[in-house]
Write a structure and sequence with these properties.
The structure is a homodimer. Chain A is an alpha/beta fold. In chain A, 42% of the residues lie in helices and 14% in strands. In chain A, strands 3-7-6-10-11-12-13-5 form an eight-stranded mixed beta sheet, sandwiched between helices. The longest helix of chain A is centred in the C-terminal third of the chain and has 27 residues. Chains A and B meet through helix 4, helix 5, helix 6, helix 8 and helix 9 of A and helix 4, helix 5, helix 6, helix 8 and helix 9 of B.
């Protein structure tokens, strides 16, 4: 994908690197648009786009009639969290009611939304999607008011299969089952592969919704040490598979929630071979895969799966339509059983919403929308990290994900982010406390911040205020 | 509800009774509109409406300048099926793939739809609903494209609670959880009340979707003898509760699918007391409750529930919007656990569809729509029974439900309705074979017919043809 569309990110990355290395110190003049377009062999318009992005991210600033200069930008000095160290035994899951509350708070317009991992509606193509829905509602009233086949609308399944070609995933529309969001996809996969009392191997920390799905099915969670950049520890996975009776693994392959880590392709191959040798299936959660800040979309496990051991789950909830509740499962592994469970669980989905998403995809607007969204999110992330750096107590660590829209912060060990959660909420700020991302009572000194809200002074002040609260609580 | 709106049904019932009793034989002159309005003390307009309905049902016919006469109408002579006699032991559930196919066939416009229990879109207010959806889609684009609280949109919950007042059910909007159709409501209730291996007591025959829900959860079904008019045998229920470890009962209180039976209120009281004494909860499926042909809507179990033992489930799928997938659970019994499972299962539903249904209810159009729908369905049912009477082999029995839109036919014992299903499908007619409504291999000589399609010659011919096929197969 060294596509023309991504050349401006090349240029932006090049300038950022020069600033990070100190070659271009604060206040230094940045190569002019003409210079950079010549030296990097890109069109002038690409250079203009790159500099606009860099301005947005606060790396450079334009001075009238003079050119571009390095702004207050300086390299981020905060450390990343170390690899996690969860206990080696599986434990029963009992999630608090905080996750439910996060969703309720997420719908409260008075709160500053740093809690739920929900894309701000302002960066979604909500208007266009609404117009397409209105058109479907007006023109196909009769077609839409019936039950449909549990698998879902054929047009949507075809569009999803087409999109997967972009990253080399060979899917047939027939391998796809449309679900009520990724939540239903994961729940159906778990119900098909496990029985009450079984152990499921997960990342640590991991998405609390997964933990709730495990709890609802009386499953045990075995958390693996997870590196904030490269994901799970393969040796620990091997130990887990050898020692315990593991029914399934459940990993997010790209920009996992909350760490933001992405496993390298070599690690994915290794894991798949390991799983094949133990005969353990993998449920893959790829819900953030399309929100990558690098040049290429990471390739999901399913792309490399030669042994039909992967059940791939994703949705449009993080990129386009959280409110439309449309996800999917793509698998040839036990597809009939999954479909039967879909039928018994929700019968079928609403045709009109599935058709609307298919309209959006078929119109070609999705790629454009994703590019815009990624650029905004990457800028937001950089601003949020810098604001944390300014305001949080010494010793705070923070992740540097290459996609998605959440940051994971680790405060000093005596910090209590549940207390921080309560204190912040009293001031109208919602965050996600760290302990809900594990079943082993860890991460009580961590928190997750959603950076999908458009960056503005109000948001910056909220992050600053969080830093003050954290400082006063750990002082 | 001796409301003016129902007076015309009184008059229609009075005339039908006179015809059934032979007081008014075929070809006899029927009292004039003026006569009947005087004798029954109703407005002339009510009499006109009643006679229009009777014409539609084929009971009377108008002769120009002469008045009304009894048409070819004669009382139905077909017997009803006897009370069912399922085995007394619980059995594991393994449903065939026919139910899945019924749903797929149900979306095929080339087939004559007597199979899936889906209201014909032609009798739904699909146009009005589509316009309301288009309006919501245009005007609230941002509001709708977010996750919402798992419980669902507050306005919709308030409208549902208000409607339940009509039949004396005291509900708070806070007791209601919106679900993806009644299917999700029942599945959540089952997941909350049972564990794999448990026994659930059901009617016999019963809706195959329930059996699939039981199968997906590894539950056993214990089927009770069920009378086609008054529902389950209470003595058999008592034996079941005494002898076995029953985790829950799952009954349809009104116009159950497929028998169409409705338990009298006294029986409901008896059952609730029995369940309370054994400490066994009841999952109530009231999905057909609004489609009553009599004067009053039957009152659900939940109305009489003093011990918080009922989990009430319903949806708009049979009356308004099968394609919108909106159902609900109303309960104070274990509501928190149900909500947690909803969160783990589908997170939340699509706001825009919930708001649209709320718009429809708030506009007051729902009652009018229901009245129109009931009148059409009752006429369809009478025509279908008469067509069955003309064309099916001797000894065929058929139910006479007082609501809903399915008929249950019992052919002579050697008949094989799975073979009839295949033969009919080859001729473009879809029916539901009887064996899928039980887990004990019974009802292989039965079938279910959906009478919600607008009655026309094509439909009449299809039913006639079914009768011929059945006759030739049992000859």
């Amino acid at each position: 994908m060294s596509d023309a569309r991504f050349l401006y990110e090349d240029v932006a990355g090049y300038i950022t690197e020069l600033v990070d290395m100190g070659t271009l110190p604060k206040g230094a003049r940045v190569p002019s648009l003409r210079e950079v377009s010549q030296s990097r062999r890109v069109a002038l318009s690409t250079a203009i786009q790159a500099y606009r992005v860099l301005e947005g991210r606060g790396v450079i600033e334009a001075r009238p009639k003079s050119g571009y200069y390095v702004s207050n930008y300086r390299p981020i000095t905060l450390e990343q969290p170390a690899i996690s160290r969860p206990p080696e035994s599986a434990s029963a899951v009992a999630v608090s009611d905080i996750p439910l509350k996060l969703l309720e708070y997420g719908a409260d317009p008075r709160l500053i939304q740093l809690g739920a991992s929900m894309p701000s509606v302002k960066i979604l193509a909500a208007g266009r999607l609404g117009r397409l829905l209105a058109r479907e509602a007006r023109t196909n009233v009769h077609k839409h008011n019936t039950y449909i086949a549990p698998k879902g609308v054929a047009r949507l399944r075809a569009e999803i299969a087409k999109r997967a070609m972009h990253w080399g995933q060979a899917l047939s529309p027939e391998d796809i089952i449309i679900t009520e969001g990724c939540t239903e996809a994961l729940a159906l996969a778990l119900r098909t592969l496990t029985q009450a009392g079984d152990t499921v191997v997960v990342e640590s920390p991991t998405y609390f919704g997964l933990l709730q799905a495990l709890e609802a099915l009386d499953l045990k969670a075995l958390e693996l040490p997870t590196d904030p950049t490269t994901g799970i520890d393969v040796a620990a996975l091997e130990r887990a598979l050898s020692g315990k009776n593991v029914a399934a693994c459940l990993f997010a392959s790209s920009f996992n929630n909350p760490l933001g880590c992405t496993m390298p392709d070599t690690k994915k191959h290794e894991i798949l071979e390991l799983l094949a040798s133990f005969g353990v299936p993998l449920i893959e959660d790829d819900i953030y895969g399309d929100i990558y800040f690098g040049k290429e979309r990471p390739r999901p496990f399913a792309t490399f799966d030669r042994n039909e051991c992967v059940i791939y789950c994703s949705s449009f909830s993080k990129t386009l339509a959280p409110g439309y509740r449309i996800g999917w499962i793509a698998t040839t592994h036990r597809a009939d059983e999954i479909l039967k469970r879909k039928f018994a669980s929700t019968l079928c989905g609403p045709a009109v919403l599935q058709e609307t998403i298919a309209d959006f995809l078929a119109s070609g607007g999705y790629e454009h929308h994703l590019r815009r969204m990624r650029s905004i999110l990457q800028g937001n992330m950089e601003r949020m990290i810098r604001t944390v750096e300014k305001s949080f107590p010494e010793g705070t660590r923070i992740t540097r994900p290459s996609g998605g829209y959440v940051l994971w912060l680790e405060l000093r060990s005596k910090a209590n982010t549940r207390a921080l959660f309560d204190a912040a909420l009293r001031e109208g700020i919602c965050i996600a406390p760290g302990d809900v991302f594990s079943t082993s009572g860890q991460y009580g000194n961590c928190l997750r911040l959603n950076f999908s809200q458009p960056w503005d002074l109000r948001l910056e002040r909220a992050v600053m205020r969080l830093g003050e609260l954290a400082s006063s609580m750990t002082a």
